[in-house]
Amino acid sequence: MAAISVSARRKTEPPAQENPSQGRAALRQRLRRHLTGHGFLLGALLCFACFSWWPMVREVIMSFQKTKRGKTTWVGMDNLDRIFQDPDFWHAWRNTLLFTVLALVLGFAVPFAVAVLLNELRHAKSYLRVLVYLPVMMPPVASVLLFKYFYNPSYGLFNNVLHALHLPTSAWLNSPDMAMLSVVIAATWMNMGGATLIYLAALQGIPGELYEAAELDGASLLRRIWHVTIPQTRLILSLLLLLQVVATMQVFVEPYLLTGGNGPQNSTLTVVNLIYQYAFSFNNYGSASALGLVMLLVLAGFSALYVRLSRTTD
Amino acid sequence: MADTSTRTLISETQLSRPLGKAVYWTVLTLVVLGFTLVFLGPLYWLVTGGLKSTQEVIQNPPTFFPSHIHTDTYSEAWSKLNMGRLLFNTLYYAFGALAFQLVFDVAAAYSLSKLRPVLGNAILGMMLATLMIPSTVLIVPQYLTVLDLPLLHVNLINTPWAIWLPTVANAFNIFLLKRFFDSVPEELMAAAAIDGASPTRALWSIVLPMSRPILGVVSIFAVVNVWKDFLWPMLVQPDPRNQPLNIGINSLSIGVPQNVVIAALAIASLPTIVFFLIFQRNIMAGLTSGGLKG
């Protein structure tokens, strides 16, 4: 009952201004409410201004500037020209795309398969869930350096297992062909828990009658997955796919820690690694920003798609 | 989630047949063993690796059990890699960031949800817009901002502020909190106002006590994010004495024997594993409820 009167008052704020002093008091009260409101916002606003909004503007400005010995000059498209001519630019994009594709094949398909499997199990559910999510919680340095130890070509665990199974061993991180795949395997182990649990939640929302009906129609296990499970989780699958594309294209820590960033013959140099090197190894903020802007435009395409998709889910 | 009655891909009748039972138990055993091997195995190797001697840890083929237990490797790691300091720094950054996020993001979300000042919606829109910008792309201008904070012209490098303040600019937190605050009934707010409670008082006595679950989710993710962050602390904490675990172990591990590094990694992982086992229910609930529909 009170709610109605309150919300009504909010919409048609000054009810009736019979006498001016009352009106002024109401105005003052309203002003005070707005001021308190902005007072509460102030801390977050300042942080957003300093660490989000201003850097966004500055990123664009810096892409067209060059700073040399403290002097900043406008150079127009020079930075962009420069990075396009850098052979590393193409290396970095090729490697990043390779990482994204490999990471999706592993990091998208594996968690889905695992989630479907876990959803069928009636026992040890929470144990398995905790296990899958455990690496996500570990400090990345621990997981990455542990994998670096496993990858060691002479005494690492992986080559020892392969050797014991009479399979060909690999130079892993030291081989230009295997380095990126090695990075992807480590990254998948570290990150798959999050996706798995989200899929699992989505799978639990599928009404059982659909499976029932499909089974009565004589659908085999694989056809039930294809015609019920996948269509029913399609939206979450596509949203997560896009989020993963955006996230994996920004990969930095894994190649940086596993191969020092570049890897054998630049095989693990990714775009963010290149941004990092431009900015913090060569102090070339202009090129770093220009490359960041290119990255931003590429990812903006994916983000726009994400927004469209998430609208349709609501 | 305890809906054991609803059927999944495979029906109960199928499972209760002898063949179904046999297949189910085989698959279950394989999955449990496989998962333990894949996800717990590396941790076993981490903990036991720290107990091996320098020769044994790089011995070929490796040993499954340490032949002699060297607990002193752990104490060596603790002192050589300055683990106490690194752990303290990590906790200091994580809980500082948590405090800042709780104070500023809760205040902002409360204001946007209940006080609704002029331009509130525009501000919320601008905050949410930042979610569309991939964070690593802004690393260079953010770094320059920390180097010379606008208007105040202070350098935050090597201070904890460089880690604490940027975490406040978290649109996702504000959005989650605002959505939760929106569900607090207006009647309660109006009643509090009639009783003469100030907005701060209403936040403290009505909204916050009702929002415990969401505050828990936000807090856990605030701590975990700082604990896991790498690139940003590496840039803004160049002084080894101020570095958190992730950066410190990596930079201090050069020239240190492999078994000592492994022991250090085990020490670094332990707090997160304990934290996870304590809060796993909340973490997983937060992940599946708030995690997706952002």
3D architecture notes:
Chain A is built from 14 helices and 2 strands, in the order H-H-E-E-H-H-H-H-H-H-H-H-H-H-H-H. In chain A, strand 1 and strand 2 (71-74) form a beta hairpin. Residues 1-14 of chain A have low confidence and may be disordered. Chain A has a single domain (78-313), classed as MetI-like fold, CATH 1.10.3720. Chain A has 314 residues and is mostly helical. Chain A has a two-stranded antiparallel ribbon. Chain B has one domain: MetI-like fold (Orthogonal Bundle). In chain B, 70% of the residues lie in helices and 0% in strands. Chain B has 15 helices and no strands. Mean pLDDT of chain B is 87; it is low at 1-5. Chains A and B meet through helix 1, helix 2, helix 4, helix 5 and helix 6 of A and helix 2, helix 5, helix 6, helix 7 and helix 8 of B. Chain A: Its main location: membrane.
Provide a concise account of the structure shown.
The complex is a heterodimer of chains A (314) and B (294). By secondary structure, chain A is mostly helical. Chain A is 76% helix and 3% strand.
Helix/strand class of chain B: mainly alpha
* Total E-strand runs of chain B: 0
Would you identify the CATH H-level superfamily of chain A? MetI-like
* Strand proportion of chain A: under 5%
Our Rg estimate of chain B from Cα atoms comes to 25 Å
What's the SSE pattern of chain B? HHHHHHHHHHHHHHH
Question: In the residues of chain A, how many domains can be counted?
Answer: 1
Distance between the termini of chain B: 22 Å
The largest sheet of chain B is: none
Q: Which residues of chain B form runs of ≥5 with pLDDT under 50?
A: 1-5
Low-confidence residue ranges of chain A? 1-14
Radius of gyration of chain A, taken over Cα atoms and rounded to an integer in Å: 27 Å
What is the CATH first-level class name of chain B? Mainly Alpha
Order of helices and strands of chain A: HHEEHHHHHHHHHHHH
Strand content of chain B: under 5%
Largest sheet of chain A: 2 strands, antiparallel
Globally, the shape of chain A reads flat
- What sort of overall outline of chain B do the alpha carbons produce when their principal axes are compared? flat
| CATH class category label of chain A | Mainly Alpha
Structural class of chain A: mainly alpha
Q: Strand order of the main beta sheet of chain A, please?
A: 1-2
